[in-house]
Amino acid sequence: MNSPENASKTATEASIAENLKTIRQSLALGLSEAKRDAGSVTLVAVSKTFSAEEILPALHEGQRIFGENRVQEAQSKWPLLREKFADIELHLIGPLQSNKTAEAVALFDVIQTVDREKIAATIATEMQRLGRKLKLFVQVNTGDEEQKAGIAPSEAVAFVNRCRDVHGLDIAGLMCIPPFNENPGPHFALLRKLAKDAGVQELSMGMSGDFDTAIQFGATYVRVGSAIFGSRPPLVSA
Ligand SMILES: *Cc1c(COP(=O)(O)O)cnc(C)c1O
Question: DSSP of 187-206, one letter per residue?
Fold first, then answer.
């Protein structure tokens, strides 16, 4: 019961607020070291596995942009939090199944994980039906890992074009999760090159362990979870 996971799971309100301030300072420093404009990276606070109660300190600290990786889990927390905080922007950063697309389009403001034709088509249909326009990212499997979601790098540019030309979707940028235990730099460089080739601006890359590197490679969104909220139970950290 005294494992580090449990210890940080019960991170106090004060420590979550403190962590958030530290991350914001690191982002500002990283931008200045990379000679990039202040404010040119957006922090997505990844709140997956954490309860509404654990998310509140971040909201009280002014954080409004959050990432969740499961539609159902997000539905159980965010509608209530949104009643108290009107200006929340919610990002889906986990794989999307087509039978969950209607719910996802209704709940989220941004979907970062568009990665195949069928999902692109379903998102287009649901946005039309619900009269909603979400910001969309194509997820690229930069490490060509078999078990990982995302379109293959070799197909990414053509896929972005098909999203636009066939499905009428406006793709804002690309997202990647580099292979665990690999130097992330080459993956971030690849994502940046693919975005340039596809003519899209935004780069969602960098997590708690590597957001500094991601900023050097031009990240415009970083997705930071454990460095803010504490570590998650290993099995549900997908
Ligand atoms: C969980 C998760 C994150 C956050 O990871 P941390 O290492 O806790 O910062 C970022 N991106 C995605 C896609 C995730 O699933």
Answer: HHHHHHHHHHHHT--EEE--
Q: What is the Cα–Cα distance from 212 to 31, expressed in whole angstroms?
A: 9
Does 169 contact ligand 1 (Cβ within 6 A)? no
CA of 223 to the centre of ligand 1 (A): 6
Q: Which residue has the tokens 């979870």?
A: 225
| Average confidence (pLDDT) over 232-237 | 64
pLDDT at 11: 62
Is residue 5 pLDDT above 80, yes or no? no
Percent of residues, the chain, with pLDDT higher than 90:
90
The predicted model scores a pTM of 0.93
Tell the residue nearest (CA) to atom 13 of ligand 1: 93
Say if ligand 1 is within 6 A of residue 46 CB.
yes
Q: Is the pLDDT of residue 70 over 70?
A: yes
Tell me how far CA of residue 52 lies from CA of 49, 78, 81, in angstroms. 10, 8, 7
Whole-angstrom distance, CA of residue 175 vs CA of residue 142:
9
Residue 165 Cα to ligand 1 midpoint, Å, equals 31
Residue 226, ligand 1, Cβ within 6 A: yes
Write down the pLDDT at residue 232.
Answer: 85
CA distances from 46 to 63, 91, 116 (A): 11, 9, 23
Q: Is the CB of residue 93 below 6 angstroms from any atom belonging to ligand 1?
A: yes
Question: Looking at ligand 1, which atom is closest to the CA of residue 227?
Answer: 9
